[in-house]
What does this fold into?
Amino acid sequence: MLLPLVFLGITNWNSFLSGLLAFFALYLIICISLNLEMGYAGIPNFGKVLYFMGGAAFSGSVAIRAAAWIMHVPGDTVGLDNFLIAGKLTLMLRSDIPASVALIAITIAIGGLVGGILGYISIFPAIRLREDYLAMLLLGSAAFFQIFLSNYTPIINGTLGIGIPNFFAWAGSYSTIGATLLIAAFALVVYVYAERLVRSPLGRTLRALRDNEPAAEALGKDTVAIRRNVLIIASVITGVAGALYTIYTGDTNPAIYDRVTWTFWPWLIVIMGGVASNSGVAIGTFVFIFLLQYIDATKFYLQDVLPFDVTWLEYLLFGSLLIVVLLVRPQGILPEKPSHTLSRSRISTIIGEADDRDERPGTTPGEDGQAE
Amino acid sequence: MSVSLTLTYITTKVPNFAQGALVTAGLYTGFALLSINKINPYESMPLSFLVGGFIAIGIYLAVLRPLSRKGASIISLMIATLAVDIVFIGIFGIYSDYLYQAKEVYDAKQFYALTGADFRLFGVNGVVYAAPTALALITVILYLVLTRTRFGLAMRATVENSNLAKVVGVRTEVVYVVSWFIAGGVAAIAGVFYSFWLGGEPDIGSILLISMFAGSILGGLKSIYGAVVGGLVVGGGEILVTTLGAQYIGSWVTAYEPGIPLLIMVVTLLALPGGITSLDWRRLLLRRRK
It folds into this structure.
């Protein structure tokens, strides 16, 4: 009885649901990567927006140039003629599926590459500095990068931003759904990858490193190399998320990449869902995105009553939500579970196989065998 | 501003990402009183100080103290202050919309330097004299309080080792609350000066945060006097480099002004992680004399 009441007031169901899926998938990618850094490797990345912004802006910049080059459209692609060229290219790509697919691949690759480069640069402070210094530095770098993009016009035309052609134009009226499904597919891949990673020996090493670094080092783990790898992997994933977002929205503008939306909200989601718990993060993402989309779809009702912009209420609501979660349930909705182990029968099978091998003639028996 | 950040840092050992909110609080208190009641921000400065101070106490008592009592990690505390900052961006946004619509203050969402309300002396705006004077006053007062009063002694003891201070009977909680109050007030006053110089908007605090961090880090995050020097170097560096850069390279340089505190931060962290106060000046000078 309650559920239909909650849904009351949503006028456009289609856009609500497709927006829900797209943003759920997008935030899932970002939050899983943040969880890898913060939850498992213990790197507090307060500059998440940096990698997202880099991936989104550079991939958009390269995408329209590549499209114009492939389609032989002359002109100032990221300058004055930008929107004209983007529109023209969309029309041309409508009948050219191979080119569209190639351009999607290029965009995503550039996003990952730029994210990776930024991640590589961040290694230097990340392995040297204490958590608080690192947080300040990354937060500051992200803010400066946004200012840089707003002022350096050759990349995305400064504060004006650029439009990029619609790479799903061939799908006709299903183009948004196409982009949504692309993001969803990536989210699934990232989720499965992260889940396999944390169950692997590397995942257990990461937890050891986070919980007791000297002990991990004493056992011969190269902590610097492991941190470096995780940071680069997470940055590449975030950069790809940026590229996917550019493909989805069809434009890129420095003003989009604020630290509230792309740094603070992922942190809120990861903490709310459960640090170092991928399934928890997935649930957290869904809860958060559902609330956000619901507020978005119904806020015009409130807008007529309130003497201020409803967006500010979102800030108030989600800011307080994080404080409440930290105070009341710091472990999140689904807390971190103990490491997964193999099932008992599987272990006995392995032991059995090992015993067989020892008993086989021709092989040298181990020391255990001699003791027996 | 850096002074206030350092003050909160040395007491709670957490970089306060909500420090920008305190600056904004002072800035908007001054602005609202000027626009509605026509009170000069210089006259309303004590009120700004109180507003900033009480908000800071509120943040400490409502968020940071309960969290650290539950044994939260430094990462949790940092993200909590970031959340407080986001909440305050919402509050100032609502407040500026309210000023705009209910009080018909049409520049509430983004206003320019309040030079009209400033006095002029020798053809220069008063803030040029007032801000350094205030900084010197604050530094001297803090110095006197810290070294010449019982409370200052209690505060230094709490900072050095709060458990030991408790054992000898210092009420560390009172010390924490008072330090946060002073820090909030100082930040708010810095906000008022800023509004004379460059104007303001609801999320101005987040832009200023880099400069504040840079100043504190350069000052070593542990010493108030270090923060004074750090703040001066960062602020001076920003203005000097951009004016010189605009003259000799081109006006586009000014747009990258926030890069200077970032650069200072990076260089400090790589070359001198303890800040300038960690240097042994006496040894350096002696070596030169030999």
